[in-house]
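Quick check before the chapter quiz. The format below is the same one you will see on the exam, so make sure you can read both the input and the output lines.
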Amino acid sequence: PGGGMPPPEVAVLAVQPGTVHLTTELPGRLEASRVAQVRARVTGILQKRVFTEGSDVKAGQTLFRIDAAPYEAALQSAQAQLAQAQAQLAQAGATATRYKPLVAANAVSQQEYDAAVAAEKAAQAQVAAGKAAVRTAGINLGYATVAAPISGRIGRALVTEGALVNQQQDGGTALAVVQQIDPLYINITQSANQVLQLREALAAGQLARASGAEAAKVQVLLDNGQPFGQSGRLLFTDLSVDPATGEVSLRAELPNPGGRLLPGMYVRVRIEQAQVEGAILLPQQAVTRGSQGDSVLVVAADGSVAPRPITIRGAQGQHWIVTGGLQPGEQVMVEGAMKLMLGAKVVKP
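Here is the expected output.
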């Protein structure tokens, strides 16, 4: 009576196929989506900085003021020359108008009339040149007020009040840098072999695109391992492989409200590039991996245990993605393998 040990208790999991998203964790570096260098476009003494360093600025907002007196004088001079050209045009036009009936009556020679018409046209050209000079002088005067070219966050001022700035030195004296950090770009690298395998699987119909869309979902993992509150999207994959590293560059776009993340930061990026239909997620401790293949222990209805070879597609966190070898509803042993020998029966808790 009652001889022998009772059957051991083990933890089992009833498998149920479903849609499993294939995610890949890759290194990435954050980059501002737009970067604009603020440079001097006229020469003069910098009179005032009118922004707060490190603040957010709007496109068109005034940042610096350069001494405008020489450019105001140049504009006034151009306006005076235009007025003189307009007066000469009025005189030449009046002469040509007066000569026109006289030449028909032979009161003036044809040569004198032709000269009057040519003088009127020359005066019209002088007026056009004068208007262009006024416009140029006005543009230069406008450049004395330096405005933000884009909206974004501005860094420190690279020059101080009283400094002489020049529009001819290396494309203009650098005054500041504005960066748009919402959204941010994420520059990511992925092994060319991984990209090739993914594309082949998609082409063969083994996988479906993530969410049925071209743009894969991107999630940024912070230093503490927690995901960033905003999800991004994959913009494009580069067309060439870096010969030095064998990797392909990818770029994603990430909303960054409040500017929590900064350009230049290194992050881990989780990309959902495809999905597997009819796959099963099994805890990694339930799977035995060896040179002969991968297998699990399946518990039958009578409590008997037998190994079963399976096909693994990849990993997701602490789970393996199983795509073959198991039927819906079958029970796989997750823990307790050390408690029994093959062929023994178990009591399922």
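If your answer matched, good. The helical segments are 69-104, 110-143, 192-203.
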